[in-house]
Amino acid sequence: MTIEEVAAGAGVEPAWLEKVERNGTHDLLYSEICNLVRATQPPRPERWDEGYEHDLTLHPHGHPAPRTPSEREYWDRIEAVQAAIQQWYQRGRRASA
């Protein structure tokens, strides 16, 4: 990502971000660090529920089979988000090569 893209995503000026790159993050507020991290993450899919990121590290086949349509829908959404994240990082690797 370019400095301009990260700055726009974090809601800061590119010059501020360039200063952070030169001087380090030791003087940043926690909220500023969180904003920078969020700005470099893949975009959230529409309708993604807050608070379920931990399930992205799980594999649905390591759990009992979904018993209800809502459980099946949930794991389908997890798999779709995992695939979108994988595509995001693959695109970044190709761009930096």
Describe it.
This protein is 58% helix and 0% strand. The chain is mainly α and 97 residues long. It folds into two domains: 41 residues, no CATH class; 51 residues. Helix 1 crosses helix 2 and helix 1 packs across helix 3. The two termini are 13 Å apart. The mean pLDDT is 80.
Could you report the average pLDDT, rounded to the nearest whole number?
Answer: 80
Number of separate domains: 2
Q: What is the alpha-carbon Rg in Å?
A: 17 Å
Order of helices and strands: HHHH
Shape: elongated
Distance linking N and C termini:
13 Å
**Residues in helix, %:** 55-70%
Largest sheet report: none
Number of strands: 0
Percentage of residues in DSSP E strands: under 5%
Number of helices: 4
Give the uncertain stretches in residue-range form. none
User: Which structural category do the helix and sheet elements fall into?
Assistant: mainly alpha
Helix-strand layout with pairing:
Elements: H1 3-10, H2 14-23, H3 30-39, H4 69-96
Helix pairs in contact: 1-2, 1-3
Provide a quick synopsis of the model.
The protein has 97 residues and is an all-alpha fold. It is built from four helices and no strands. The longest helix has 28 residues, at 69-96.
Keywords:
97 residues, mainly alpha, 4 helices, 0% strand
